[in-house]
Structure formats: C-alpha cells, structure tokens
Amino acid sequence: MHISAAYLASIFAVDASLFIALGLLVVILPVLALWFLYEQRKAGACSRRALCTTFSCIKCELIYSRCGIEKEASCPQCGYRNTRLKF
Ligand SMILES: [Zn+2]
Known about the structure:
Blueprint: H1 5-50, E1 52-56, E2 63-67, E3 72-74, E4 81-83
Antiparallel strand pairs: 1-2, 3-4
Zinc ion (ZN) binds at residues 57, 59-60, 62, 75, 77-78, 80.
C-alpha cells in the first residue's frame, strides 16, 4: 500500500483544522458560560444593592443598612432615628 506525501499532508491539514476548531470550542464555551453567569450575578447584585440604603447613626456612629425605600431608619444599637446617608 502506497501512501503519498500529498495524502499525508491532506490528512494532517484536516486534523489540524479539526484540532484547532475543537480547541477553540473547548476554550470559548467555558468562557462564554462563565461570562453569562458573571453577568447574571452582577445584575442580581445591582438590583439587591439598589433596594438597600446605608444609614450612619449620628448618636453612636454605627453604620448600618436597611432594605426597602426608607428615608429614615432607627439605629439597631441605640434606637435613634437617622436619615439616609448622602454622598
Ligand atoms: Zn446609634
């Protein structure tokens, strides 16, 4: 059985492109999956953070947060009602 050099080269070319395609698939798919999961987690964290407000107690200097749309919240340590922090 005679195998020509051109035949070997064509097999190698097909194998190489197949190998590259599979390699790209193996690399790209997990990256896309991770990116998708990261974006979902980021969106979830943003919506959770937007619902919470940070308060700083002017009586005992405790910093705490309350979730929901509140303009005032009582301090968990001394009970003083503080207005929301403005930056
Ligand atoms: Zn306090």
